[in-house]
Design brief:
Blueprint: H1 11-22, E1 31-32, H2 33-44, H3 55-64, E2 75-76, H4 92-98, H5 111-114
Parallel strand pairs: 1-2
The chain binds a DNA duplex through α2, α3 and β2.
DNA sequence: ATTATGACTCCCA
DNA sequence: GTGGGAGCCATAA
């Protein structure tokens, strides 16, 4: 059950694509929900005419149901912050710190330094 | 049937 | 730099 708005045209396919992309993020790097959404939607030919109303939330929904093999912790919001509901129920921050990613005093990751650039991937 | 609730981002004050 | 509102609808209760 997607925690977000609407569902993609093909939820199963969308999930698979999200996980495929997330799996490409190397340790020590992070990507934003919007970034993943843009890649996946473009790849699947989904028109994002409604602005960014859907995509990022769909990604969140996909990550909520992802297998353990997916490094979901490397996906954060556009502010460089972790956006889990409960927050304390997750060890996302610990996982990222274990990869060498540093958080500032406000609990944010510096995207200028750690953002993953998907330039080498032929989507 | 109706209500509450989202793993978000953008834009403007 | 921060903060609030809009966009927008599938599920669960």
């Amino acid at each position: 059950m997607p925690s977000g708005y609407t569902s993609p045209p093909d939820r199963h396919l969308f999930n698979a694509k999200v996980w495929e992309v997330v799996q490409q993020i190397p340790p020590g790097k992070v990507a934003t929900y919007g970034q993943i959404a843009a890649i996946v939607m473009k790849s699947l030919g989904i028109d994002d005419s409604k602005g960014r109303a859907y995509g990022p939330r769909w990604v969140g929904g996909s990550l909520a149901a992802c297998p353990d093999s997916i490094p979901w912790q490397r996906v954060i919001n556009s502010q460089g912050k972790i956006s889990l509901r409960g927050g304390s129920e997750s060890n996302q921050r610990s996982l990222l710190e274990a990869e060498g990613i540093e958080f500032d005093s406000l609990g944010r990751i510096d995207l200028e330094i750690y953002r993953w650039e998907a330039t080498d991937i032929p989507w």
